[in-house]
Amino acid sequence: MVKKFSKKKLPVVVSSALILSMFSGIGTVTPKQTHAAELTSLKFDFGSSVSPVAKGYTQVTNNMIYSSERGYGLNKAVDFRDRGAPDDLRRDFINGTNYTFSVDVSNGEYYVSVITGDNSASNKTSFTVEGQSLGTISTSAGNFAEKSKIVTVQDGQLNVDLGDNGRVNAIEIIAMAAPSGLALTEKNLFKDTTVSLKWDEVEGATSYNVYRKAEGDTASIKVGTTSTPEFKDETVQLGLKYEYSVTQVNEKAIESAKSTPINVALVDETKAVPKAPTGTTLIKSTDKSLTFHWNGSEDTLMYYVYRSKSPQGPFERVGISKNGEFSDQSVSPTRHYYYRVSAVNLGGISDPSNTIETPITKLVQRQMEKLNRGLVAVKVENGVYVGWRMLGTDPEGVAFNVYRDGQKVNKEPITSSTNFLDNNGTKDSKYDVRAVFNGNEEPLAEAATTVWGQNYYDLPIQKPEGGTTPDGKSYTYSANDASVGDVDGDGQYEIILKWYPSNAKDNSQSGYTGNTYVDAYKFDGTRLWRIDLGKNIRSGAHYTQMMVYDLDGDGKAEVAMKTADGTVDGQGTVIGDANADYRNSSGYVLSGPEFLTVFDGLTGKALTTTDYDPPRGNVADWGDSYGNRVDRFLAGIAYLDGERPSLIMARGYYTRAVIAAYNWRDGKLTKVWTFDSNKTDNGEYAGQGYHNLSVADVDQDGKDEIVYGAAVIDDNGTGLYTTGLGHGDAQHVGDLDPTRPGLEMFAVHEDKSAKYGIEFRDVETGKAIWGNFTGRDTGRGLSADIDPRYPGEESWAVGGAWNDPTGDMFTAQGERISSDIPGANFAIWWDGDLQREILDHAKFNDADQVGVGTIGKWDYENKKLVNILTADGTFSNNGTKGNPSLQADLMGDWREEVIWRTEDSSALRIFTSTDVTEQRIRTLMHDPVYRLGIAWQNVGYNQPPHTSFFLGHNMDAPPVPSLYLNNVIPATVDVNPNSIDTKQTNGNVSLTVNIGLDKEHEVSEINSATVKMVVNGKTIFAESHPSVNGEKSNKLMVKFDRQQVSEALKGYSGTVQVNINGFLHDGESFNEKAELTLK
C-alpha cells in the first residue's frame, strides 16, 4: 500500500500518530534490551542531532550506529538534511547509499511503515524490510510518501535496508499479536456437516478473520469474519481434513499474524473407508456439458468428483453426486479435462477411481480480417520473385497458379509454397495469382501487381511543419511508429503512422513538446487523413498508444486512442475546448479532461468520445507527483468473449495499475469491465506491469487474457495471477517451448533484488519453468529460435548496457548455452528457413538517437551475428530501442516485412524478403496471437510479435485457424452414419455429411474445398469431388475419411459433439454441430 501527500498537509494516517501506548491489542513492542525498553514506542524520527523530534517519536541521528545496549541504530554513519518545513517529522531526514537501520525486537509479525520525501528536492529511495522489497518510492520536491508492509522477524532483529537516494524521514513499527487458545468446540458429520471453533478474546480487536486450508491445498482461504471469538463453519465437507487459524483486526484495520493452527478431521475413525469406485466412463460430451458415470461402492453416502487440466493433477473437487453419475456444466470444453471420483462415508474418502480424459467439444471462432492475396513481385538478379498469402480460410489442399501479363508461368499448380521465381520476368511485367480448389481455378479477383525494382518500396508520406514551444524552442518532425488495418474493406492494409516532434519526451523528462500527429496512408502514398492530438496530449513513447483494428466487424478498421481538449479529428472537427491549454510550466499535462475517442479508419472522423478510463485522479496515487508515473499508458486488442474484439486501455504499472475493456459495436462504445490494483484483494497486482503488454488465450478457454508483465488479467476482468517479480522492460509470449503444452513467457525484470532477473514461465499458471538471478536491472531480453541444435526458442538477456554483446543465452529448457549474444531488440522471420533473424540497428548516433536498420543471422557455431541486410538511408525509432516503424506479415508469403523511415522522413521504406522458400504457412495475420501482437507493437517499448504456435526449426504443422470473416449463416448438417467404431482400423469407408443452407443461399455458393470437420480439436478437411444430393433437395454432400475421424476419437466413449463448417465463395461462412456415437 502506498499513500502520497504534499507538504501542505500531513494526512491523518501519519499525523494521527499510531502511538503504541494508545493502541489496544498489539502486545509487547519494545526491543529486548534494557535501553530500548525505555522507548515510549517504536516510532523513529530520522534527522540530525539538533533537529526537533516529532512528538511521540524517538530520535535517530545520522551517526547513531547500532549497539546492542541501545537496541537500535544504523550500520554506518550517513548524511542528513534539515529543510525547516513542513513539520517536525518531515522537515529533516537522513540520506546515504546502501545502508541499514536495525532494531531489536521479539520474534513475530510486525507492521512496518516508512515515510520518505524531501521538501526541497526530488527523491528516489528503495526499501527492503526483512528481505521483502517495498520497491522504489519516487517523490518530487515538496512531496512525501508512505509505504507499509507486514513482515516476520525470526532472528530477534528487524532490519530496514535503504538504497538509491536513501532518504528516510520516519519509520513506525507495530507488533501484531495473534489470537491464542484456538480450539474445536463441536463437529457434526452428517447430514449437516459443520465445525464450531472458539479462541481467547484479544483486547481491542474489532474483528477476527477465520482461515481454513484443506488437506492437499497450498494456501489458506478466508472462510469468515466475526466480531466475537467464536465461529461456526457451515461450508465444510464430510471426509475432509482441515487446518484452521484465526487473525485479529484492530481499529486501524491492520490484521495480525495467524494464530497457531489446529487440525480438524471430519471423519469417524471407527468406521471403515469405502472402496474406490471403478469403471468411470464418458456418456456424453458436448460444448455445454461433460457427462460420465461409474460403478458405485458399498456403504457410501456420496461421491466427490474431481477435475484437473492435466492427467498428473492437481485435481480439485468440482461436485458431489448422490448416485453414480455426474454432469459438469461449469467448464468450457475448449481443452481436455481429466476427471476422477472418490466414494465418501463417515469413515472418510476412498482412493480415487480411474482417471478419464474428455474430448475437446467446443469450437470458438474469431472474427478476423478478410484479406486479399497480398501479391508482391520483386526484380531479382535471375528474374522476378513473386510471393502471396495462403489465407487462414484456405484448405490444406489449396494450390496456386501464377500469371505474368495474363499468361500462366508455372507448369503445375504450386502446392509446396506460396512463392515462385519467374526466371523470365522483367521489371515491366505484371503478375497475378489465382487459387485452385479441388482442381478448379478461382477467377481473377485482384488487379495485376507491378514489379518492385529492388527489395523495398518507398511509400511517400507528408511531414508536418515544425513549430515553436511556449518557451521559444523550435522543433521539427520525424515519422515514428506505425500500425496497419484495412480501413476501406478492400482486403489490403493501410498504414496508420504517428509523427513525433524532435522534442518528444520520456515521462521522466520535463519540458514542452510539439503536438503528436497521426496519419493514414494507402500503399500508393495517398494520405487519407491527419489527426492532430493537440497541445494537451504530450508527445512521447508512453503517451499515445493507437489501436488500429476492425472493432465492430464491418470489414473496415477503426482507430482508437486517448484524446483531449483541442484534438482535431481527420475531418477538421475539434474535440472539446479548442482554446484549452492545461500544460504546466514543466510541460506536463496534469489537469483537464481526458478522453478516449474511436475514429473512423477511412475518414479520420471522430465516431464517439468518452471520458478516459482509468482517469488521472490524484497524480500522486500513481507513484510520484510530478507527472511521470501517472501518464504511463498501455493499450491492446483482446477477444474477451473469444469471438469478437474488445478494446483494452490501461494506465500505470510502476505502482497502481488500472485496465479497462470496451466494446465498439453497432455505433456504441460500452465498457465491459475495469480492473484496478487499488481495489480490495487486488493489491498484489500493483507494481507488476511492464512498458508493454501481450494478449493471448493463456488458459485455453478460447478467450484472451491480458499479460500485464508479471501479472495476468483474466478475460472477465479479474486477476488470474501475479508472480510478484515486479516491473520489467520486455516480455515475449508464445509457444516458446513446443516440448510442453500451452504457452510460455520469457521476461526480464528491473528490480535488482528480484528472485529472477530473467524468467521463463508457464504463462497459464505463472509457475517459473526456469529463471536466473541477475542482481541488476535487466533491461533487454529477447526470445527467438536462432539455434537449430536445441528444441524451441532460445532466450537471452543483455549483461549490461542495451548494446552489450555479452549476457546469458538459454535454451527453452533452461540450459545456459552462450555468454555471447546477438542484439536483444527485435527478431524477424526473414530468410528461407524457419528460424528467426535478428532485427536491430547499427551506426548508432548518440546525439540524434538514431541508427540504421539492420537484419542479421546468428552464427550459432561461431557465436557471432552475420549481417544480411543494412537498410542504408533509413533510421530506426525511439533511441536505443532501435525498433522499426513496424514489423509485420504485410504482404507476400508468411514471412515478415519491415518498415523503417527514410532519413528525411519523406517516405516509409518497406522491405520484403526475396529468398525463395519451400516452407508453406498460412499468413501470420490470421494467427490470433500474432495479429494482436501487431496491434500492440506500437505500445510503449515496442516488442516483436510472436505466434500462438511454435514457428521454428523442426516445427509441427500449425493448426488451422478457427475464424470467420463476416456473416455466419444458418445451416443444417446430418452425418451418415452417425456412429463410428474407433476400434476398427481397416477399411476406408467415408462418413457422408449433407449440408443445407438457409433460403437466402444456394449450396452451390459453398466453396466445398473449405468444408471441414473439427473433431476433438483436430481439423479434417472434406474429400474432393463433392456433389449435390439428388435425394435431399438443395443439400451439398461431402465425404470425410472415416479413419481420420476414428483416430481423432480413439480412447473416448459415449456420444461426442463435432463441428462442421466452411466458407462460401464470398467469404460468408457456416458452422454447425453434429453428434457421433462411439462404439
UniProtKB/TrEMBL annotation:
Residues 1-27 form the signal peptide. Keywords: Signal. The keyword Signal applies. SMART domains: FN3 (SM00060). CDD domains: FN3 (cd00063), RGL11 (cd10318). It comes from the Bacteria. Residues 178-270, 276-364 form the Fibronectin type-III domain. This is Fibronectin type 3 domain-containing protein. It comes from Neobacillus bataviensis.
